[in-house]
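Our collaborator T.R. sent over the components below with a one-line note: 'Predict the complex.' Nothing else. No constraints on interfaces, no templates requested, no preferences about which chain binds where. So this is a plain run: every listed entity goes in together, and whatever single assembly comes back becomes the starting point for the next discussion.
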Amino acid sequence: EVQLMEAGGGLVQPGGSLRLSCATSGYTFSSYWMFWVRQAPGKGLVWVSRISSDGRPTGYADSVKGRFTISRDNAKNTLYLQMNSLRPEDTGLYYCARETWGMAANYWGQGTLVTVSS
Amino acid sequence: QSALTQPASVSGSLGQSITVSCTGTSSDVGSYDYVSWYQHYSGKAPKLLIFEVSNRPSEISSRFSGSKSGNTASLTISGLQAEDEGDYYCSSYTTSDTVLFGGGTKVTVL
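Returned assembly:
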Protein backbone atom coordinates (compact mmCIF):
# COMPACT_ATOMS: atom_id res chain seq x y z
CA GLU A 1 0.00 0.00 0.00
CA VAL A 2 1.34 3.42 -0.99
CA GLN A 3 1.71 5.71 2.02
CA LEU A 4 2.98 9.27 2.41
CA MET A 5 3.34 10.89 5.81
CA GLU A 6 4.34 14.49 6.37
CA ALA A 7 6.05 15.75 9.52
CA GLY A 8 7.87 18.82 10.76
CA GLY A 9 5.08 21.36 10.93
CA GLY A 10 4.59 23.62 13.91
CA LEU A 11 4.47 27.17 15.19
CA VAL A 12 7.26 29.47 14.05
CA GLN A 13 7.82 33.22 14.27
CA PRO A 14 7.92 35.38 11.13
CA GLY A 15 11.38 35.22 9.62
CA GLY A 16 11.99 31.78 11.06
CA SER A 17 12.66 28.43 9.37
CA LEU A 18 11.14 24.97 9.29
CA ARG A 19 12.03 21.77 7.48
CA LEU A 20 9.15 19.57 6.45
CA SER A 21 9.64 15.92 5.61
CA CYS A 22 7.49 13.38 3.79
CA ALA A 23 8.25 9.74 4.53
CA THR A 24 7.01 7.36 1.86
CA SER A 25 6.51 3.61 1.62
CA GLY A 26 4.82 0.99 -0.52
CA TYR A 27 6.41 1.94 -3.83
CA THR A 28 9.76 2.68 -5.47
CA PHE A 29 10.26 6.25 -4.31
CA SER A 30 13.20 6.91 -6.63
CA SER A 31 11.02 6.33 -9.71
CA TYR A 32 8.55 9.14 -9.14
CA TRP A 33 8.53 12.91 -9.28
CA MET A 34 7.04 14.56 -6.20
CA PHE A 35 5.11 17.73 -5.32
CA TRP A 36 4.44 19.95 -2.32
CA VAL A 37 1.03 21.62 -2.19
CA ARG A 38 -0.37 23.83 0.57
CA GLN A 39 -3.74 25.12 1.72
CA ALA A 40 -4.10 28.25 3.82
CA PRO A 41 -6.98 28.27 6.32
CA GLY A 42 -10.26 28.73 4.45
CA LYS A 43 -8.49 28.98 1.10
CA GLY A 44 -7.84 26.72 -1.87
CA LEU A 45 -5.02 24.40 -2.84
CA VAL A 46 -1.82 26.05 -4.02
CA TRP A 47 1.05 24.25 -5.70
CA VAL A 48 4.39 24.99 -4.02
CA SER A 49 7.15 23.02 -5.73
CA ARG A 50 8.07 19.92 -7.70
CA ILE A 51 11.16 17.73 -7.89
CA SER A 52 12.29 15.15 -10.40
CA SER A 53 12.83 11.51 -9.51
CA ASP A 54 16.61 12.00 -9.41
CA GLY A 55 16.48 15.14 -7.26
CA ARG A 56 16.41 18.11 -9.64
CA PRO A 57 14.07 20.84 -8.39
CA THR A 58 11.95 21.73 -11.38
CA GLY A 59 9.94 24.69 -10.21
CA TYR A 60 8.66 26.85 -7.40
CA ALA A 61 5.59 29.03 -7.03
CA ASP A 62 6.50 32.72 -7.26
CA SER A 63 5.31 33.21 -3.68
CA VAL A 64 8.02 30.90 -2.29
CA LYS A 65 10.83 31.25 -4.83
CA GLY A 66 14.13 32.10 -3.16
CA ARG A 67 12.83 31.14 0.29
CA PHE A 68 11.84 27.47 -0.03
CA THR A 69 14.00 24.57 -1.24
CA ILE A 70 12.67 21.17 -2.23
CA SER A 71 14.94 18.15 -1.98
CA ARG A 72 14.80 14.38 -1.58
CA ASP A 73 16.83 11.47 -0.26
CA ASN A 74 16.10 8.44 -2.40
CA ALA A 75 18.03 6.19 -0.01
CA LYS A 76 15.66 7.19 2.79
CA ASN A 77 12.50 7.33 0.61
CA THR A 78 11.92 10.82 1.95
CA LEU A 79 10.98 14.18 0.43
CA TYR A 80 11.85 17.49 2.11
CA LEU A 81 10.84 21.13 2.01
CA GLN A 82 13.21 23.61 3.65
CA MET A 83 11.28 26.79 4.38
CA ASN A 84 13.22 29.95 5.29
CA SER A 85 12.20 33.57 5.88
CA LEU A 86 8.71 32.41 6.76
CA ARG A 87 5.82 34.87 6.53
CA PRO A 88 2.34 34.78 8.09
CA GLU A 89 0.92 34.08 4.63
CA ASP A 90 2.87 30.81 4.55
CA THR A 91 0.54 29.50 7.27
CA GLY A 92 -1.38 26.43 6.17
CA LEU A 93 -1.59 22.69 5.78
CA TYR A 94 1.28 21.36 3.67
CA TYR A 95 0.74 18.20 1.63
CA CYS A 96 3.27 16.07 -0.19
CA ALA A 97 2.05 14.19 -3.23
CA ARG A 98 3.33 11.61 -5.71
CA GLU A 99 3.13 12.61 -9.33
CA THR A 100 1.57 10.45 -12.00
CA TRP A 101 0.83 11.08 -15.68
CA GLY A 102 0.41 14.62 -16.88
CA MET A 103 1.64 16.40 -13.74
CA ALA A 104 -1.28 15.01 -11.75
CA ALA A 105 -0.89 13.65 -8.22
CA ASN A 106 -2.53 10.35 -7.40
CA TYR A 107 -1.24 9.77 -3.87
CA TRP A 108 -1.23 12.38 -1.11
CA GLY A 109 -0.29 12.56 2.53
CA GLN A 110 -2.64 13.84 5.22
CA GLY A 111 -0.70 17.10 5.58
CA THR A 112 1.32 18.84 8.27
CA LEU A 113 0.25 22.19 9.71
CA VAL A 114 2.57 25.18 9.60
CA THR A 115 1.64 28.28 11.58
CA VAL A 116 3.70 31.45 11.18
CA SER A 117 2.82 33.90 13.90
CA SER A 118 4.42 36.03 16.58
CA GLN B 1 0.88 33.25 -11.35
CA SER B 2 -2.84 33.86 -10.92
CA ALA B 3 -4.98 30.87 -10.04
CA LEU B 4 -7.10 29.25 -12.71
CA THR B 5 -10.67 30.57 -12.59
CA GLN B 6 -13.41 28.31 -11.28
CA PRO B 7 -16.96 29.21 -10.20
CA ALA B 8 -17.19 29.49 -6.44
CA SER B 9 -20.16 27.15 -6.30
CA VAL B 10 -22.24 24.84 -8.45
CA SER B 11 -25.33 22.98 -7.33
CA GLY B 12 -27.59 20.32 -8.75
CA SER B 13 -30.30 17.89 -7.73
CA LEU B 14 -29.82 14.20 -7.11
CA GLY B 15 -29.45 12.38 -10.41
CA GLN B 16 -28.76 15.54 -12.42
CA SER B 17 -25.58 16.40 -14.30
CA ILE B 18 -23.45 19.39 -13.45
CA THR B 19 -20.39 20.93 -15.05
CA VAL B 20 -17.56 22.78 -13.33
CA SER B 21 -15.49 25.04 -15.54
CA CYS B 22 -11.81 25.92 -15.19
CA THR B 23 -10.56 28.86 -17.23
CA GLY B 24 -6.90 29.59 -17.74
CA THR B 25 -4.80 31.17 -20.44
CA SER B 26 -2.73 30.23 -23.44
CA SER B 27 0.19 29.81 -21.01
CA ASP B 28 -1.41 26.96 -19.10
CA VAL B 29 -4.71 25.23 -19.95
CA GLY B 30 -4.49 26.31 -23.57
CA SER B 31 -0.94 25.06 -24.05
CA TYR B 32 -0.99 21.52 -22.70
CA ASP B 33 -3.34 18.60 -22.19
CA TYR B 34 -2.08 18.42 -18.61
CA VAL B 35 -5.27 19.37 -16.81
CA SER B 36 -6.24 17.43 -13.70
CA TRP B 37 -9.27 17.48 -11.41
CA TYR B 38 -9.39 16.70 -7.69
CA GLN B 39 -12.09 16.21 -5.08
CA HIS B 40 -11.06 17.59 -1.71
CA TYR B 41 -12.50 17.69 1.76
CA SER B 42 -10.65 20.24 3.88
CA GLY B 43 -8.04 18.65 6.11
CA LYS B 44 -8.13 15.41 4.11
CA ALA B 45 -5.96 14.18 1.27
CA PRO B 46 -7.22 15.36 -2.14
CA LYS B 47 -8.46 12.63 -4.48
CA LEU B 48 -7.47 12.55 -8.15
CA LEU B 49 -10.53 12.28 -10.41
CA ILE B 50 -9.20 13.14 -13.87
CA PHE B 51 -5.72 13.50 -15.36
CA GLU B 52 -4.57 14.65 -18.81
CA VAL B 53 -7.91 16.42 -19.45
CA SER B 54 -10.14 13.38 -19.75
CA ASN B 55 -8.46 10.28 -18.34
CA ARG B 56 -9.84 8.62 -15.27
CA PRO B 57 -7.90 6.53 -12.73
CA SER B 58 -9.29 3.00 -12.72
CA GLU B 59 -10.92 3.40 -9.31
CA ILE B 60 -12.88 6.52 -10.25
CA SER B 61 -16.52 6.23 -11.28
CA SER B 62 -17.39 6.81 -14.95
CA ARG B 63 -19.85 9.45 -13.70
CA PHE B 64 -16.87 11.80 -13.67
CA SER B 65 -15.64 13.03 -17.04
CA GLY B 66 -13.37 15.80 -18.27
CA SER B 67 -12.95 17.83 -21.43
CA LYS B 68 -11.20 20.91 -22.73
CA SER B 69 -11.81 23.59 -25.33
CA GLY B 70 -9.23 26.29 -25.86
CA ASN B 71 -8.29 27.83 -22.53
CA THR B 72 -11.19 26.29 -20.62
CA ALA B 73 -11.39 22.81 -19.13
CA SER B 74 -14.52 21.25 -17.70
CA LEU B 75 -15.44 18.54 -15.23
CA THR B 76 -18.86 16.94 -15.62
CA ILE B 77 -20.46 14.90 -12.87
CA SER B 78 -23.41 12.90 -14.14
CA GLY B 79 -26.03 11.14 -12.03
CA LEU B 80 -25.23 13.45 -9.09
CA GLN B 81 -25.12 11.63 -5.76
CA ALA B 82 -25.13 12.92 -2.19
CA GLU B 83 -21.53 11.79 -1.68
CA ASP B 84 -20.40 14.05 -4.54
CA GLU B 85 -20.77 17.09 -2.30
CA GLY B 86 -17.41 18.69 -1.66
CA ASP B 87 -14.77 20.95 -3.09
CA TYR B 88 -13.38 20.40 -6.57
CA TYR B 89 -10.12 21.78 -7.92
CA CYS B 90 -8.61 21.85 -11.37
CA SER B 91 -4.90 22.14 -12.02
CA SER B 92 -2.77 22.71 -15.10
CA TYR B 93 0.87 22.57 -16.07
CA THR B 94 2.18 25.92 -17.30
CA THR B 95 4.76 27.19 -19.78
CA SER B 96 6.82 28.36 -16.77
CA ASP B 97 7.32 24.70 -15.72
CA THR B 98 5.04 25.17 -12.74
CA VAL B 99 1.59 23.89 -11.85
CA LEU B 100 -1.41 26.14 -11.19
CA PHE B 101 -4.51 25.17 -9.26
CA GLY B 102 -7.93 26.72 -9.66
CA GLY B 103 -9.55 28.56 -6.79
CA GLY B 104 -11.88 25.65 -6.10
CA THR B 105 -15.61 25.03 -6.58
CA LYS B 106 -18.01 23.94 -3.87
CA VAL B 107 -20.46 21.40 -5.24
CA THR B 108 -23.78 21.16 -3.42
CA VAL B 109 -26.33 18.42 -3.98
CA LEU B 110 -29.85 19.72 -3.50
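Summary for T.R.: The interface with chain B takes residues 35, 37, 39, 44-47, 50, 58-63, 93, 95, 97, 100-106, 108-111 of chain A (CB under 8 Å).
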